[in-house]
Amino acid sequence: MSAAVGYVRLKLFARYAELVGQDELQLSVPLPSTVAEIVRHARAEIPGAGAIPERPLVAVNLRHVALDARVADGDEVAFLPPLAGG
Amino acid sequence: MLTRDPISPAALLAEVAAPDLGGTCLFLGTVRDAPADGGITGIEYSAYEAMAVTELERILAETRRQWPAARVAVRHRLGLVATEEASIGIAAAAPHRAEAFAACRYVIEQVKERLPVWKKELRADGSVLWVDPQGRPAVVGPA
């Protein structure tokens, strides 16, 4: 039985966007996936993304989530460098 | 709540003022120079804007729940901010000072912890560093 496949929009910012040279990519991911699995996939497959930490801050659909959060088809996933607001 | 224009303390204060609110706090976060590092000319702020707006709305909603009588306004600046200019302004007005201080403090502490905003330090020697308030700066290279 094959897993379902979906797409997530991966958004990168600040230092992570500079490492990869892009600020937005569409990723094809097996579903179901956790955020941690998406991080692993991105770090392994996207040139430059290997320098992103193994456990970055992540948001899904504009909310902070833990790395074990589930991701659905069409979600917007963002890897967030260390925050420096205020 | 996100702006590329200089932050106006007067505008923030006017936004929260009301006849029944006797205590008002204004917090400004300003860009500091770094003479030990050779000085900085400014900081470039960037954000995950859609999430920054929703996160600020959540923070304000939480503030309203905890201090229902307080009125709060916040502005975070994006783009290039020179030293001594404000990157963030928060005004909180309440019937009495205790709630005004508490609400204002809550907002800045939550912003520091949650807001998807990043800052790039532009140094006088031409180098550029991403700032990690918790750790070491990551050198980007010449601007």
Strand order of the largest sheet of chain A: 2-1-7-4-5
pLDDT < 50 runs, ≥5 residues of chain B: none
> Could you say which overall geometry of chain A the principal axes of the C-alpha atoms support?
globular
Question: In percent, how helical is the residue content of chain A?
Answer: 10-25%
Share of residues in helices of chain B: 25-40%
CATH architecture assignment of chain A: Roll
What is the fourth-level CATH superfamily of chain A?
A: Beta-grasp domain
The tally of strands of chain A reads 7
Task: Describe it.
The complex is a heterodimer of chains A (86) and B (143). With 86 residues, chain A is of the alpha+beta class. Chain A has one domain: Ubiquitin-like (UB roll). Chain A has two helices and seven strands, in the order βαββαββββ. The longest helix of chain A is centred in the middle third of the chain and has 11 residues, at 35-45. Chain A is globular. By secondary structure, chain B is α+β, with helices and mostly antiparallel strands. In chain B, 31% of the residues lie in helices and 38% in strands. In chain B, a hairpin with a 7-residue loop joins strand 8 and strand 9 (138-142). The mean pLDDT of chain B is 94. Chains A and B meet through helix 1 of A and helix 2, helix 3 and strand 7 of B.
Summarize the structure.
Chain A is an alpha+beta fold and 86 residues long. Chain A has helices at 14-20, 35-45, and strands at residues 4-12, 24-31, 33-34, 57-60, 63-65, 70-71, 76-80. The mean pLDDT of chain A is 95.
